[in-house]
């Protein structure tokens, strides 16, 4: 069915061309495309409008105050939102059940758990986020549809992917809502059935400027994107729970809280088990025992949020909680890699925030009878305030801390390491990540635990615009072998 500019922007227009595509990237424009000229963080999209028109753009959408071009030009107060809504209207179909999860840490884990739970319960389900788009279904092998990229993709990409998934029979979709993504309206076109919140701690101050602005961005998932009457699944153990609960209630949503004080799912107890942990959970007056094959208190929190989201969309509580017993952790999140030559266990994890690092070291301490060894760094062109906080945490919670490089991007790696080391008393500095991992593996003995943190699933080390192939899992395995002499 053809769609016109007026259909996509939901307004009467004097000139109403047929639209054949929607994009905010002039390089993707073809004949008949609606080009959204968005003011960006680096450049003004309007400067690419003449090129877009030359490439065939049928209309330009942009902010109030933008110049008028030689094709129908529509100016609106919130062009990013209009772009997202136009993209959704253009692509049309969405999986009937879409849920989103936000929070500083745990989004990828929760989205992946939701996908797995829905699939175990007989639905064709997908997750969209840091690890790309993955589809799972009953009796079908997991299918990776897109590679890892942005945590929350561009609005037109989200809309196109939702239509493709719906056409492929996917009925349940779990999306990661990053603060950048919510702030930039990348999810404004998604019709949500439920939304989840994991936690709120320091990250991304480079982009948001203050913790308040960062929190506002996350709150927007509830106060603007989640419809009235839908369910907000909130982590009762987060310090920010009250703020998120108040926002959800004010927005006419029901709150389903999970955690130690959860009203929807209450975590009564947690006991370590060799393969993970045993959870006792109360739900609607019933007590359930869950044999969870994942270690760490944070994973207990993540699985309860995922379970809450699935229950909020109408799944049976007992069946959802049973499905937790066969969950797999997301790649590179507390992923066990192997055993040291003289004993000990090595893990790769994606902790790249102070809270993430503290959480993963706390999670591993009970599994450590010898030394807890951590190899980590901090990303360049990202929140600089994280660096000393992560240094202090590693020095305090690990027995051996090795500070190395993690995607320096355009920054001087030595300067990043120095900012971490300033607060990491007793830590060792080894800039080369491979050498750092090898030095750590060489120290491993029986009872020790090594965690290589910060890069998880990532396949490259970004240095001065060049992505050098690098995989922490492969490097850690090689280091364990090299230490076996
Ligand atoms: C800071 C940030 O979030 N930037 C994102 C944003 O770019 P922007 O709008 O600021 O872009 P810009 O480069 O100033 O350009 C302005 C406009 O001109 C357009 N343009 C540009 C060049 C051209 O030739 N033609 C053209 O039309 C661009 O498409 C854009 O619409 O919108 C783009 C399209 O969606 C994103 O690709 C881009 O992500 C950059 C690459 C990025 O690194 N983002 C990271 C920080 C990010 O978004 N991370 C979050 C959080 C992860 C987490 O939770 O930890 C994520 O969701 O991944
Ligand atoms: N609930 C949690 N609380 C604290 N830390 C967590 C929690 N869940 C995960 N983490 C830590 O954060 C790391 C990243 O987890 P995950 O990828 O699920 O988070 P994310 O929010 O998707 O991250 P990103 O912002 O990069 O998308 C994990 O490897 C772990 O170290
Ligand atoms: N989504 C996060 C990932 C950080 C991963 C870490 N390896 C780094 O490069 O800082 C970000 O873009 O801030
Ligand atoms: Mg993620």
Automatic annotation (TrEMBL):
GO terms for cellular component: cytoplasm. Meso-2,6-diaminopimelate binds at residues 382, 406-409, 454, 458. Pathway: Cell wall biogenesis; peptidoglycan biosynthesis. The keyword Cytoplasm applies. Coiled coil: none annotated. One of its GO terms (biological process) is cell wall organization. The keyword Ligase applies. Pfam families: Mur_ligase, Mur_ligase_C, Mur_ligase_M. It catalyses: UDP-N-acetyl-alpha-D-muramoyl-L-alanyl-D-glutamate + meso-2,6-diaminopimelate + ATP = UDP-N-acetyl-alpha-D-muramoyl-L-alanyl-gamma-D-glutamyl-meso-2,6-diaminopimelate + ADP + phosphate + H(+). It is found in: Cytoplasm. A motif (Meso-diaminopimelate recognition motif) lies at residues 406-409. It comes from Caulobacter henricii. Residues 101-309 form the Mur ligase central domain. Residues 19-63 form the Mur ligase N-terminal catalytic domain. Catalyzes the addition of meso-diaminopimelic acid to the nucleotide precursor UDP-N-acetylmuramoyl-L-alanyl-D-glutamate (UMAG) in the biosynthesis of bacterial cell-wall peptidoglycan. Belongs to the MurCDEF family. MurE subfamily. The gene is murE. ATP binds at residues 103-109. Residues 332-456 form the Mur ligase C-terminal domain. This is UDP-N-acetylmuramoyl-L-alanyl-D-glutamate--2,6-diaminopimelate ligase. The modification N6-carboxylysine is found at residue 218.
């Amino acid at each position: 069915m053809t769609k016109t500019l007026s259909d996509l922007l939901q307004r009467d227009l004097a000139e109403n061309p047929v639209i054949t595509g929607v994009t905010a990237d002039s390089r993707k424009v073809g004949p008949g495309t609606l080009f959204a000229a968005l003011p960006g963080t680096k450049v003004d999209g309007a400067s690419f409008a003449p090129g877009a028109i030359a490439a065939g753009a049928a209309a330009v959408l942009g902010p109030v105050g933008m110049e008028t071009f030689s094709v129908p030009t529509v100016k609106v107060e919130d062009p990013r939102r209009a772009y997202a809504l136009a993209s959704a209207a253009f692509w049309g179909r969405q999986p009937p059940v879409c849920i989103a999860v936000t929070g500083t840490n745990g989004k990828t884990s929760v989205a992946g758990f939701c996908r797995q739970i829905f699939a175990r319960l007989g639905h064709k389900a997908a997750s969209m986020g840091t690890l790309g788009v993955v589809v799972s279904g009953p009796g079908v092998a997991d299918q990776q549809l897109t590679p890892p990229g942005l945590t929350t993709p561009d609005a037109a990409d989200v809309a196109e992917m939702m239509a493709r998934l719906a056409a492929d029979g996917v009925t349940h979709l779990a999306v990661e809502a990053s603060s950048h993504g919510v702030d930039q309206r990348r999810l404004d076109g998604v019709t949500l059935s439920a939304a989840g919140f994991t936690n709120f701690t320091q990250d991304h101050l480079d982009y948001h400027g203050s913790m308040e602005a960062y929190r506002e961005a996350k709150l927007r998932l509830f106060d603007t994107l989640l419809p009235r009457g839908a369910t907000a699944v909130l982590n009762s153990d987060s310090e920010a729970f009250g703020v998120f609960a108040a926002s959800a209630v004010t927005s006419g949503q029901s709150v389903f809280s999970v955690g130690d004080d959860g009203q929807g799912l209450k975590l009564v107890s947690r006991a370590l088990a060799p393969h993970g942990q045993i959870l006792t959970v109360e739900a609607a007056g019933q007590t359930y025992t869950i044999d969870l094959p994942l270690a760490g208190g944070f994973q207990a929190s993540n699985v309860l949020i995922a379970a809450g989201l699935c229950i909020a969309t109408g799944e049976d509580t007992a069946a959802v909680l049973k499905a937790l017993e066969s969950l797999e952790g997301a790649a590179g999140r507390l992923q066990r890699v192997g055993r040291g030559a003289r004993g000990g266990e090595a893990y790769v994890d994606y902790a790249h925030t102070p809270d993430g690092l503290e959480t993963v070291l706390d999670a591993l301490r009970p599994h450590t009878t010898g030394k807890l060894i951590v190899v980590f760094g901090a990303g360049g062109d990202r929140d600089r305030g994280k660096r000393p906080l992560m240094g202090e945490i590693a020095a305090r919670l690990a027995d051996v801390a090795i500070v190395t490089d993690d995607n320096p991007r355009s920054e001087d790696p030595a300067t990043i390491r120095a900012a971490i080391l300033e607060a990491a008393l007793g830590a060792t500095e080894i800039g080369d990540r491979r050498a750092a991992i090898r030095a750590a593996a060489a120290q491993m003995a029986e009872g020790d635990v090594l965690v290589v943190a910060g890069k998880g699933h990532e396949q490259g080390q970004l240095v001065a615009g060049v992505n050098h192939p690098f995989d922490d899992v492969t490097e850690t395995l090689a280091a364990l072998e090299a230490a076996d002499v």
